[in-house]
Design goal:
Largest sheet: 7 strands, mixed
Strand content: 25-35%
Shape: elongated
Number of helices: 8
CATH architecture of the largest domain: Alpha-Beta Complex
Distance between the termini: 54 Å
CATH superfamily of the largest domain: Spore Coat Polysaccharide Biosynthesis Protein SpsA, Chain A
CATH topology of the largest domain: Spore Coat Polysaccharide Biosynthesis Protein SpsA, Chain A
CATH class of the largest domain: Alpha Beta
Strand order of the largest sheet: 5-4-1-6-11-8-12
């Protein structure tokens, strides 16, 4: 089988974090989400992977390269505009050829990997398998309606009145019949070729579409609150390891990961938390459920339940930072200059709460 990762979205719901970087490269527990997807495919035995890219393609290419670090082969497929998931399948036909393949959205995080799913599909005569999970607000997703036997009756994209609470997770397995489907459907009212319409075409024409209901956790990392939730989940499953330096005046618990080159000086770090490469944590409190990405300085400050990206400086902040996402190369400091006032330079669509 081959793998197809969709990595072309702009990630506008994550602005300003994604205003200057691809949303698939935002790290969860100090590893970009896209890297986690590649690893999931590699662990399932898939070595030939296509990545559909858009406006952020150059950044994706630079970060991922040819796939050698994972022992896979990467082929890049350029999508001229975000014209739908089925359109991404359509333009990938030359890469896929006559092979079966798994399609994985590049901004999703799922518990447990997909190795078992891949094995089941490879050994079956199914034409398609879709992964479903129960969600609280199905109107925001593609939704499946099942019959009494547990087979799919119909799929609806972002319905106003959802027929069920079973959402499409963003992991699909197909055989080559999907290409006949994507060439047969018409754009939706959104102007996109919907993957739900393509799968419905398979159902309506008698092909076997197998549902799989995922019982573990799954998170679509589309919004800051989702990124923090994904970070929480992945941090809780990390096997902690201390490869950096922790001085005798610091306290870290057994759920803390300290990556190589990091230094923790006279600080308290509570897990689950990860401190990235070459970070310095000085006279500070970090955690729980916090990821500090590489080459970041935190001094005389407190951070909890947050994601801090690389090359940032957080110094002498008088109040605890929590429930936050902080971008790359950000400098947050306390200024003694009077008159006292907040002086902020913020990216587009930022949200700030001050007390």
């Amino acid at each position: 089988m081959k793998g197809l990762i969709l990595s072309g979205g702009k990630g506008t719901r994550l602005y300003p974090i994604t205003y200057t970087q691809a949303k698939q490269l935002v790290p969860v527990a100090n590893k970009p989400v896209l890297f986690r997807v590649i690893e999931a495919l590699q662990e399932a035995g898939i070595q030939d992977i296509g990545i559909v890219i858009g406006d952020t393609g150059p950044e994706i290419r630079q970060a991922v390269g040819k796939g050698r670090r994972w022992g896979v082969r990467i082929t890049y497929i350029e999508q001229e505009a975000p014209l739908g998931l089925a359109h991404a399948v359509k333009i990938s036909q030359e890469f896929i050829g006559d092979d079966r393949f798994v399609m994985f959205l590049g901004d999703n995080v799922i518990q447990g990997g997909i190795s078992q799913l891949i094995r089941e599909f490879e050994q079956s005569d199914w034409n398609c398998q879709v992964v479903l999970t129960e969600v609280e607000e199905p109107q925001h997703y593609g939704v499946a309606e099942l019959d009494e036997a547990g087979q799919i009756l119909r799929l609806v994209e972002k319905p106003r009145n959802p027929p069920s609470n079973l959402a499409l997770v963003g992991i699909y397995m197909f055989d080559p019949h999907i290409f006949q489907a994507v060439h047969s459907i018409q754009p939706s009212w959104r102007g996109e070729l919907e993957i739900t319409d393509a799968i419905q075409w398979l159902i309506d024409h008698g092909y076997t579409v197998r549902p799989y209901i995922h019982r573990g956790w799954w998170i679509d990392t589309g919004k800051p609150i989702d990124m923090l939730a994904a970070n929480d989940r992945v941090l809780a499953e990390l096997v902690p390891e201390v490869r950096g330096y922790v001085d005798r005046d610091s306290q870290i618990d057994h759920l803390v990961t300290v990556e190589e080159g990091a230094e923790i000086v006279n600080s308290v770090v509570r897990g689950p938390t990860i401190i990235g490469r070459n970070c310095r944590i000085v006279n500070s409190f970090i955690g729980p459920f916090t990821s500090i990405y590489h080459d970041t300085l935190v001094e005389n400050s407190e951070i909890e339940h947050s994601i801090v990206l690389d090359h940032s400086h957080i110094e002498n902040v008088p109040h605890r930072i929590q429930d936050s996402m902080i971008g790359r190369n950000v400098h947050i400091t306390h200024s003694p200059i009077k008159p006292r006032a907040y002086k902020l330079i913020l990216g587009d669509n930022s949200k700030v709460g001050l007390l």
